[in-house]
Amino acid sequence: MTNIVAVTACPSGVAHTYMAAEAVEAAAKAKGWNCKVETQGSIGIENELTTEEIAQADIVILTKDIGIKNEDRFKGKTIVRIGVSDAVKRADAVMSKIEAHIEKATA
């Protein structure tokens, strides 16, 4: 089973942060993958990823519109950086690209 963790954040830290989190989570689950998304919004960090969840992750997705807090936690992991708008509008396409990468890496 593929494990995905993600952190979503946007410059205003409100709606798009949560819309992106929902879209990424739904697209990953549609592939049958485990997924946990941490949000970094105007009210701080919610649903914070644990050290264990990060260690078990095959892929880390980070939105790139604004700096992610504590990004050093993901050192050594395969990181995919996407715009928050791509996370909202194209999460399925992003997951398909990740799936192709995983299949290539394990072939």
From TrEMBL:
Q: Which GO terms describe its molecular function?
A: transferase activity
Alphabetically list the UniProt keywords. Answer: Kinase, Phosphoprotein, Phosphotransferase system, Sugar transport, Transferase, Transport
Going by the entry's taxonomy, the superkingdom of the source organism is recorded as: Bacteria
Q: Which reaction does it catalyse?
A: D-fructose(out) + N(pros)-phospho-L-histidyl-[protein] = D-fructose 1-phosphate(in) + L-histidyl-[protein]
Tell whether Ribonucleoprotein is among the UniProt keywords. Answer: no
EC number in record: 2.7.1.202
Question: Which PROSITE patterns has this protein been placed in?
Answer: PTS_EIIB_TYPE_2
For the keyword DNA damage, the answer is: no
Please name the Pfam families in this protein's record.
PTS_IIB (PF02302)
All residue ranges annotated as the PTS EIIB type-2 domain in the record: 4-100
This chain belongs to which protein, by name? protein-N(pi)-phosphohistidine--D-fructose phosphotransferase
Source organism of this protein record: Vibrio barjaei
